[in-house]
Write a structure and sequence with these properties.
The chain is of the alpha/beta class and about 325 residues long. It is built from ten helices and 19 strands. The strands form four sheets. An eight-stranded mixed sheet has the order 10-9-7-5-4-3-18-19, with no helix packed on it. Helix 4 (about 125-135) runs parallel beside helix 5. The longest helix is centred in the N-terminal third of the chain and has 42 residues, at about 1-45. It starts with a helix and ends with a strand. The relative contact order is 0.11.
C-alpha cells in the first residue's frame, strides 16, 4: 500500500513535468505565430513600426483619422489612412517639440505628402524640422513667398533633402489610397491679402468630407463659392480659416459649406482674440458643433467613410 502511494506521487510529478513542457512549447509556438502575423500585417500596410520599435495600427481600408493637433496659436493637421499619412501645416516655431512628440507617439516615420498652406510662421514654423527628421515624399505649397527666416529655413531643408515640390493649383486632385484631396484655392490670381494665397482643400473619403482652409479669408471664400456648386462644397467637418478670426468664415461661405462640425485651432488666451465672437455667433446660426484646441487640446475624429466618430481629445 505504501509502495503504491509513492509510485503515484512519482508518476504525478512526471505528469506535471510533461504538462510544463507542453505549456512552454505552446507559448513559444504562440509567439512565433503572432510575430509572423504581425510581420505579414506590417508588410501589407495594416501596421507601421514606430520610432520606438512598437507596431502601431493604421486605420482600416476605406477609413481615415483626422488629427487637429494642439500647437498653440497655429495650425497642424494630421490625416492618417491605411495607405499613408499626410501633414497639413506644422505649427509655429515654439511648438516644434510638441508637434514632434505628437507624431512620434503614433509611430510616424514618413509622410506621403506635406501641405504647407501658406508661408506664415504659425503654419510653417515646424516645417523644416519635418523635412529634416521625417521621410517626406512630396511637398505641396502655393506660389507665395516670404522674406522670413522661417520660410528660408523651410526652403533650405527642402533643397538639402531633395524633396519633390509641387505648386498648388485650383482643380488639382491628389489621392492617397482611398482618400482624395481636391484643391479649391488659390486660383492663380494675384492677391492683395497674403492669407488669400492659402491652399483651401476638400479631403474626401467615402461619403465623408473635411474642408481645410489655412488662413483663407472672406474674399477667397467668395471666389470659391462662385466657382463651385454648393452641393460640392457642403462638408461634414471644417477647420475654420484663420483660427476663427472674423475675417474668415463669412455668412456666404458658411451658407455654402454648412459644416456639421467646426474645428478652431488657436492658443489659450491668445492676443488676437481668436476665435472671434462674431464667428462663433455665425456658427451657432447654422447649428454647427464647435471644437477648439485651446479648450480640448488635440482633437481626433475617425471615419469609416460613412459615419464620423469623435475619437478623443488630449485636453
Amino acid at each position: 500500500m505504501i509502495r503504491k502511494e509513492k509510485e503515484n506521487k512519482w508518476l504525478s510529478a512526471e505528469e506535471k513535468s510533461k504538462r510544463r513542457l507542453r505549456l512552454i512549447s505552446f507559448v513559444i509556438a504562440f509567439f512565433i505565430i503572432a510575430a509572423a502575423v504581425a510581420w505579414f500585417l506590417y508588410e501589407d500596410g495594416y501596421f507601421s513600426e514606430g520610432k520606438n520599435g512598437i507596431f502601431l495600427s493604421r486605420p482600416a481600408e476605406g477609413s481615415a483619422e483626422f488629427h487637429f493637433i494642439d500647437v498653440g496659436q497655429g495650425d497642424a493637421t494630421l490625416i492618417r489612412t491605411n495607405s499613408g499619412d499626410i501633414l497639413i501645416d506644422a505649427g509655429p516655431n515654439g511648438a516644434e517639440q510638441a508637434l514632434r512628440d505628437y507624431l512620434d507617439s503614433y509611430g510616424i516615420n514618413e509622410f506621403e505628402m506635406c501641405i504647407f498652406t501658406h508661408p506664415d510662421e504659425d503654419h510653417i514654423g515646424g516645417a523644416d524640422m519635418i523635412i529634416k527628421e521625417y521621410g517626406v515624399k512630396t511637398v505641396l505649397m502655393p506660389e507665395a513667398e516670404s522674406e522670413t527666416t522661417t520660410f528660408s529655413s523651410l526652403l533650405d531643408a527642402i533643397e538639402e533633402k531633395g524633396v519633390n515640390v509641387l505648386n498648388a493649383v485650383q482643380n488639382q486632385e491628389y489621392n492617397v489610397g482611398e482618400l482624395s484631396l481636391f484643391i479649391l484655392s488659390p486660383d492663380g490670381t494675384k492677391q492683395k491679402i497674403k492669407n488669400n494665397y492659402s491652399i483651401v482643400l476638400k479631403a474626401q473619403i467615402g461619403s465623408i468630407s473635411v474642408m481645410l482652409q489655412g488662413d483663407a479669408e472672406a474674399a477667397a471664400e467668395e471666389k470659391i463659392v462662385k466657382a463651385y456648386p454648393a452641393d460640392f462644397l457642403c462638408c461634414d467637418i471644417m477647420k475654420l480659416g484663420h483660427h476663427g478670426s472674423s475675417s474668415s468664415s463669412s455668412d456666404t461661405w458658411l451658407a455654402a459649406v454648412r459644416p456639421r462640425i467646426a474645428i478652431i485651432s488657436c492658443g489659450k488666451g491668445n492676443s488676437y482674440g481668436h476665435p472671434n465672437a462674431e464667428t462663433l455667433n455665425r456658427l451657432r446660426k447654422y447649428g454647427t458643433d464647435v471644437y477648439r484646441t485651446d479648450k480640448l487640446g488635440s482633437i481626433v475624429f475617425s471615419t469609416d467613410g460613412k459615419d464620423i466618430c469623435y475619437a478623443k481629445s488630449t485636453g
